[in-house]
Design goal:
Blueprint lengths: L8 H8 L11 H8 L3 H13 L3 E4 L3 E4 L5 H14 L4 H14 L1 H5 L4 H18 L8 H11 L6 H16 L8 H19 L3 H12 L14
Antiparallel strand pairs: 1-2
Length: 227
């Protein structure tokens, strides 16, 4: 795209200086002098860049340009829509399911032996929590398993959406509505998916994943996704 069309000025400056990624940026006064923009105006634009995750500001370190991450642009809108009831977590879940199913083969064919061993370890940890005394819901393992399967997809938009999904999943308090039998069924599916992946039976893995997705709507969620 033509950088001249990228607004505001501070975002255009960041795009024009990709070599500064991970390095300390000049002061706002210096940037303003280069762009011909007041420091006051740049401060307003800086806050936008900060909320979008394009830069970080730390004491004694300064202002740094960060690698592009789509999640900070997605998550606030997602949580806001859930809070207002104008959209639901289940609607976003449908988007996530479509992405995972359509990109399944692209993702799983890139899994390494180490990835598969990690998936088995995640499943073992989850069963340990579910069969422990007291019982614990393996929320972290749930997130970690799915993100590990799709970790090698070189698409920042997909990764941003998938990571935003799991943040919203926690915010929706979905686990509060699920009984113990549900979690046993979920992790039986997870275990079967992982074993299929370890056999390189990717078709079977997708079949189980699709069945796994059908569990979610059985939890009678409120229209706004549990908020």
């Amino acid at each position: 795209m033509q950088l001249a069309k990228l607004k505001p000025d501070f975002l255009r400056y960041l795009a024009e200086h990709p070599a500064t990624n991970g390095q300390t940026l000049p002061t706002l006064a210096d940037i303003g002098a280069e762009l011909g923009v007041s420091v006051g105006k740049l401060r307003e634009q800086l806050e936008l860049a900060r909320h979008l995750g394009f830069i970080s500001i730390r004491p004694r370190v300064g202002m740094k340009r960060e690698p592009f991450d789509f999640m900070p642009a997605v998550l606030p809108s997602l949580l806001y829509s859930m809070a207002t009831g104008e959209a639901s977590f289940l609607q976003f879940s449908e988007l996530r399911q479509t992405l995972e199913a359509s990109l399944w083969f692209q993702a799983v064919t890139q899994l390494t032996s180490a990835d598969k061993e990690r998936l088995r370890t995640i499943v073992a940890r989850a069963w340990s929590k579910l069969k422990g005394d007291p019982v614990h819901v393996p929320n972290q393992e749930h997130r970690e398993l799915h993100l590990t399967i799709f970790a090698h997809l070189d698409n920042p938009f997909v990764q941003g959406i998938l990571n935003a999904y799991w943040e919203a999943y926690e915010a929706s308090e979905l686990t509060r509505l699920a009984d113990y039998a549900y979690w046993l069924q979920v992790w039986k599916h997870h275990e079967q998916i992982v074993e299929a992946l370890c056999r390189n039976d990717f078709d079977e893995g997708l079949r189980i994943l699709t069945a796994h997705f059908k569990l979610l709507p059985t939890l009678s969620l409120p229209a706004n996704g549990g908020q």
